[in-house]
Amino acid sequence: MKKSHLKIAVIGGGSSYTPELVEGLIRYHEVFPVTELYLADIEQGAEKLRIIGELAQRMINASGKLITLYTTLDRREAIRDADFVATQIRVGMLDARSRDEKIPLSHQLIGQETTGAGGFAKALRTIPVILGICRDIEELAPNAFMINFTNPAGIITEAVSKYSKVKSVGLCNLPIGTKMQIAELYGVEQTRMFIEIVGINHLNWTTRVVLDGDDVTEDFMTRLGSIGQSSPANIPDLEWDAEFIHSVGALPCAYHRYYYMKEEMYGEMLEYYQATGKTRADDVKEVEAELFELYKQPELHEKPAQLEKRGGAYYSEAAVQLMKSIYNDTGDIQTVNVRNQGAIPCLPDDVSIEINCVIKSDGPHALGLVKPLPPQIRGLLQVVKSYEELTIEAAVKGDYASALQALTLHPLVGDERIAKAVLADILEQNADFLPQFQR
Amino acid sequence: MKKSHLKIAVIGGGSSYTPELVEGLIRYHEVFPVTELYLADIEQGAEKLRIIGELAQRMINASGKLITLYTTLDRREAIRDADFVATQIRVGMLDARSRDEKIPLSHQLIGQETTGAGGFAKALRTIPVILGICRDIEELAPNAFMINFTNPAGIITEAVSKYSKVKSVGLCNLPIGTKMQIAELYGVEQTRMFIEIVGINHLNWTTRVVLDGDDVTEDFMTRLGSIGQSSPANIPDLEWDAEFIHSVGALPCAYHRYYYMKEEMYGEMLEYYQATGKTRADDVKEVEAELFELYKQPELHEKPAQLEKRGGAYYSEAAVQLMKSIYNDTGDIQTVNVRNQGAIPCLPDDVSIEINCVIKSDGPHALGLVKPLPPQIRGLLQVVKSYEELTIEAAVKGDYASALQALTLHPLVGDERIAKAVLADILEQNADFLPQFQR
Amino acid sequence: MKKSHLKIAVIGGGSSYTPELVEGLIRYHEVFPVTELYLADIEQGAEKLRIIGELAQRMINASGKLITLYTTLDRREAIRDADFVATQIRVGMLDARSRDEKIPLSHQLIGQETTGAGGFAKALRTIPVILGICRDIEELAPNAFMINFTNPAGIITEAVSKYSKVKSVGLCNLPIGTKMQIAELYGVEQTRMFIEIVGINHLNWTTRVVLDGDDVTEDFMTRLGSIGQSSPANIPDLEWDAEFIHSVGALPCAYHRYYYMKEEMYGEMLEYYQATGKTRADDVKEVEAELFELYKQPELHEKPAQLEKRGGAYYSEAAVQLMKSIYNDTGDIQTVNVRNQGAIPCLPDDVSIEINCVIKSDGPHALGLVKPLPPQIRGLLQVVKSYEELTIEAAVKGDYASALQALTLHPLVGDERIAKAVLADILEQNADFLPQFQR
Amino acid sequence: MKKSHLKIAVIGGGSSYTPELVEGLIRYHEVFPVTELYLADIEQGAEKLRIIGELAQRMINASGKLITLYTTLDRREAIRDADFVATQIRVGMLDARSRDEKIPLSHQLIGQETTGAGGFAKALRTIPVILGICRDIEELAPNAFMINFTNPAGIITEAVSKYSKVKSVGLCNLPIGTKMQIAELYGVEQTRMFIEIVGINHLNWTTRVVLDGDDVTEDFMTRLGSIGQSSPANIPDLEWDAEFIHSVGALPCAYHRYYYMKEEMYGEMLEYYQATGKTRADDVKEVEAELFELYKQPELHEKPAQLEKRGGAYYSEAAVQLMKSIYNDTGDIQTVNVRNQGAIPCLPDDVSIEINCVIKSDGPHALGLVKPLPPQIRGLLQVVKSYEELTIEAAVKGDYASALQALTLHPLVGDERIAKAVLADILEQNADFLPQFQR
């Protein structure tokens, strides 16, 4: 892939996360020499895009790197001949997310951005837009890699893989964060560890930990029970029960709390909402408003520390690591979202999974599992994956039956009468964003 | 298998269901000429066994059939050289069942005899006893077929298949009942219909209905929505939503109500319990007391009509049909519980499934599916099956970790903190029946 | 399917086998009341069709059955609204078969009608014509069952299943013959036996034999070694080695001799050819000429005994049994060729297999295997099936690369240089029948 | 695994290949700091071991590396506490190999050391000895990695994986040679290429070639046809047909010639044998005699150039690369033999395969395939793998039936009568080495 030009397009370039990404591109410029960076956004995001664009330009200027920056409201211009297209869109913006969180709560369900009924609504809105972007990539940059951060990242990756020809990889900052936490727990460089993470996006398990070549999984499970696991900013930090973790035989991810501690998580969520009238989306809005105020300051020419509060730690790290490993054919191991193809034999071949991959210039190659997954992991993985398959059918075809089954099947809903009521609210309140259901 | 002697052993012969079975053996005696019938029970059931034995003898006398009846408290005597061993035991009797229903209720969970936390407790108690019976069969009647009605029948079948060499088939009256209801709906003889039922015990779906060779599944789904489905006596008769049923694309079984209408089912259950202080087990105790009063009457020499209230309609039909088809190498199709062996490809090979089988003299042969199962069926099936696999491990090995994971994974529990609390109660209140956990 | 009209179309109605079929239709008319029988053939077969038509009419007249007979050169007329379409065509007629047998011989290879390079050539010629018939059925009789006897029957069934929407079943008289021989060996009615046959067409194994419900496979394997197995008229009757048969652990089919006794079979074939200048096709031509002379005799009004020499014993039995079981939704077990769908897990889902099926009104339902196939069966099955998949690709797409790989992979060829030379001859000598390769 | 001591045991240390290995250990000593090197051999190899030991000591002395060398006739001493156990034994020595080559020739079959009837005989002799070594490793060095070069390396790896607990990796110099040849073809450093090799030992295909991140497989296939592929010293250098290679869609390995060009290979072999009375084993004996003469020269203190003629090019490269990547947890990609575990879905999970793996300190992790294998590769792979499974059963259990089926199934035999005759000769002529068949 080595060439004189290296063009990156960022769809949803006006996102508050963009400075993270720009910072990473600058930091790794020597090994990943981006020459053109296009930030594209939609009309409604024009003002944000302007602010982000100006900050990004100041950051580039300060760095002295030879990166030419463009901002545009024409995503096709951004995509044309790009080598990488990063997608980080939010269809309906934070207002839609706020609804995604509140509708479930009004039905006594967990209201979460990426999982359960909230994540389902987000998927319905997002998939058609993402597939539209894919059409543009197929036409204008057929050799580009699409790097998708848009949530629900696993579902999006699967929809792209099933309904387009674009080469895409789904990315989440959770695995890289987990690996860093484990290295910290052992007080060693991450390079000395080999950590097996397996599952699907936002529902993965750490099944093996190897330190300097010695399998320390048993020891790790013991330490874990006593130490706990910190969560991303957006997930309440409930502590795992040591005995329970031991019985899983693997470290759940932060999002597992919504499943394994359903009741308490719902309780915390409801309490906060009743006390403040706000959900996480509303808080994020405030954080974002502050961030954009900061971003406007002409003297700012680096990523501000406050960005961490936003929940996107390691985000640029994950993104730039992936792109530079593809670019340089590095062959290192990263945990990303790819088409299954037998890597997890208890799931269909054509679904997306999150798994350790060797990153080569032609993309990620999944590493096979050493042992079959135990029933406690297999069962949960399979039922949530079935939910995801149904959600994709619903989103692509505007199919009510698939939508109703998806919600009924999801462990955070699980009752057809509630599913029906929630679905009615979701379809009504998102009508503007769901043309596929208006037929 | 044709031979002059045909010996049947009934383990749990003192059950109130036994007259059903005796009636069936009499009715079909011409084609299934039982010569010896052993009813075996344990010490605590001696009195019931005596009553049942006397009634059975009066029934046989009245029929004029040449069946020699024995009652015994020594199950090995009953098993020795038997051709069929029917198992219909209830470890801990109705008092244990009553606890199985009340413990979950006290944790705001559905308390049901065969599924959820209640069915789980029953499995823990029952599996070791059933495997003990298997040891006896392996020694004393290695060629016998074990016909198991003991619930949870699917889990028991799987435990037997994984941990013994006994040829066993699991049987439930639900499929035969479903088929009869559908034939009634169409107002035709059942022989004119071919009905595909697939899944696992108490969680099967009717996926195809063929009348006189025409696939009428679509039509059937439409009628269903408008007509509803009646339940066995033990399951509240909540009506299915037509739109929901249509979205499943198949007819759920009666037990699916505990999943798909979890909230309402729980509500009904709780209301009844709060109003009466009783659960289903308590009602059954009363029904049984009445039944045994009836059974004692010396002038009674047939199965009394009141037995239907007990919930076991078609029970003798299913049992005798199966045994006589094996005996006669009939090759007809019946829906029974067998080892999967690839018949449902999305489940492991070594688990039990409930599926249409051709019954030959060497046992049931599963019929392959015409189409892969859709995600809405697949996902629920897989997660409940994983629960069952874990439950068997817990029951056989007395393994706490598997037990905790089984309950956490079950859709009717689904929260580790609740699972842990329920499990503590189950282990404590069943301590007398769970030697495997006392190590 | 019960209806007042029952129309059968026979494509290739001028075949010398047709009197077999007509005889069967008459014999079973009470339970399979055909009202219209269409015999269709092509221009070149007009004379034969006339002779067969007249004989068939005399047979029907003699029987007194109410079957209206039509002969036609317009296959679409025959197909329109048919309930069953039987296909028994021979593209290129016996002259082509003669070439199929001689080309391989000239390369020191076995020259056989349905397997090896000969069967390959036949498949290339036949698949496009069969798919043309399928187009007509899709248009004119979309609910009809196609019953295919045309060889290579397994490959044809798979091609139809992959490249058309027609409901089709592939049929061969080998399994029914095997079952009859085994029943004879035991001196019992066939109904007392259950015989498991599994594999692909002309490469199946009898893996289990059950008599009166007792598994007598071991005993059967012993008897077999000592007794031998008779072959259809068209296959030299070489004797199996008892020790070898025992090591297979199953009874091979007659065609297995071409694989397991390759050298001797080739030797016999070559010797006969060198001595007489003839191959089997040439003999069949003579037999057919005699048969048609017989058929012409106005006093003949039944199937003549000489037909047996032709190699089609049990042919009408197999055909009419299948159609009448579909018609009557019988649910009996027959061995037919169907899409795999997981029934043989070591083969792809979308290939054809030959296996025991329960015949219902919606077609055959494969019976699952009780045990996985051992490596000695699995390996041969897989390699020949791969050959078949490649052959279908070659035939449908006119793809030279697939053709060359198919022949190279086949155990009766197995050398790319020989494959290339044979392929060149096949393509040249069949050029008139292979428009797909002329592009 | 980092530790002050690093002990390597070489079983079969008296092999003429050992100087290769010693040279590699010296060359990479900085990153793979062996402290103790044990060369073990059997009584009959004592003289050779002495010569090799003295040469190895001179090489180490000349290098100045701190490696302590031991020679021993007690393999348990060598194995005790070893970190790596390399196995390179030859049961029956070159005389047995000579017989392995001549017996098949006498039946008009290809006589080859590692495949066909010759490789089969070698497997029968070798597996019991290797499993004995495994018993010692299990007892004396349970954490050691066994690196097996002993042929047939794939079969040996599978036997070890099925019948012992030893962590083992099978290694062959063919893949590394293929990669080097391809890099040469493109005139680039090997690090710029990613080459997908998949299959089983001595029957692998190069299915994808990536240069600087661009998939150049198409281009590669074209070049190949025109350029040809050179073979290891031991395989005649017959040229591939360009059209044929194109139709495979992948580059076969050198050993494929025995399959794809069976006739010509046999012809060459026979001609050479008839002209000289010798097979490859006899030539090797001469080469070895010369080599050992060279090795004895006291002034020799490096690997002599003549060793290349022996056929083991890249051997030390492959071996030391693998051990040092495990030792250093390198995570680079190497093509080795491992248990399948779903990596090649069309083969059983428990068989050995040869595939690209990421080498970590806990061993190799197979990389998933990007596309399913096409039928032409799948079919050949499956049939040869089935042969291997049967061979292992035969070797471990001394089972005649499996042995006969293995040979009958092998594409280089393929006829039961020939198989039986060859098997009789093999069992007779190897009787001293096959105690498992003497029961």
Automatic annotation (TrEMBL), chains A, B, C, D:
<dbReference type="Pfam" id="PF11975">
    <property type="entry name" value="Glyco_hydro_4C"/>
</dbReference>
<dbReference type="InterPro" id="IPR001088">
    <property type="entry name" value="Glyco_hydro_4"/>
</dbReference>
<dbReference type="GO" id="GO:0004553">
    <property type="term" value="F:hydrolase activity, hydrolyzing O-glycosyl compounds"/>
</dbReference>
<protein>
    <submittedName>
        <fullName>6-phospho-beta-glucosidase</fullName>
    </submittedName>
</protein>
<dbReference type="GO" id="GO:0046872">
    <property type="term" value="F:metal ion binding"/>
</dbReference>
<keyword id="KW-0170">Cobalt</keyword>
<keyword id="KW-0533">Nickel</keyword>
<dbReference type="InterPro" id="IPR019802">
    <property type="entry name" value="GlycHydrolase_4_CS"/>
</dbReference>
<dbReference type="GO" id="GO:0005975">
    <property type="term" value="P:carbohydrate metabolic process"/>
</dbReference>
<feature type="binding site">
    <location>
        <position position="151"/>
    </location>
    <ligand>
        <name>substrate</name>
    </ligand>
</feature>
<keyword id="KW-0378">Hydrolase</keyword>
<keyword id="KW-0520">NAD</keyword>
<dbReference type="InterPro" id="IPR022616">
    <property type="entry name" value="Glyco_hydro_4_C"/>
</dbReference>
<dbReference type="InterPro" id="IPR036291">
    <property type="entry name" value="NAD(P)-bd_dom_sf"/>
</dbReference>
<keyword id="KW-0326">Glycosidase</keyword>
<keyword id="KW-0408">Iron</keyword>
<feature type="site" description="Increases basicity of active site Tyr">
    <location>
        <position position="113"/>
    </location>
</feature>
<feature type="binding site">
    <location>
        <position position="202"/>
    </location>
    <ligand>
        <name>Mn(2+)</name>
    </ligand>
</feature>
<comment type="similarity">
    <text>Belongs to the glycosyl hydrolase 4 family.</text>
</comment>
<feature type="binding site">
    <location>
        <position position="97"/>
    </location>
    <ligand>
        <name>substrate</name>
    </ligand>
</feature>
<feature type="binding site">
    <location>
        <position position="172"/>
    </location>
    <ligand>
        <name>Mn(2+)</name>
    </ligand>
</feature>
<keyword id="KW-0464">Manganese</keyword>
<dbReference type="InterPro" id="IPR015955">
    <property type="entry name" value="Lactate_DH/Glyco_Ohase_4_C"/>
</dbReference>
<feature type="domain" description="Glycosyl hydrolase family 4 C-terminal">
    <location>
        <begin position="198"/>
        <end position="413"/>
    </location>
</feature>
<dbReference type="Pfam" id="PF02056">
    <property type="entry name" value="Glyco_hydro_4"/>
</dbReference>
<dbReference type="GO" id="GO:0016616">
    <property type="term" value="F:oxidoreductase activity, acting on the CH-OH group of donors, NAD or NADP as acceptor"/>
</dbReference>
<keyword id="KW-0479">Metal-binding</keyword>
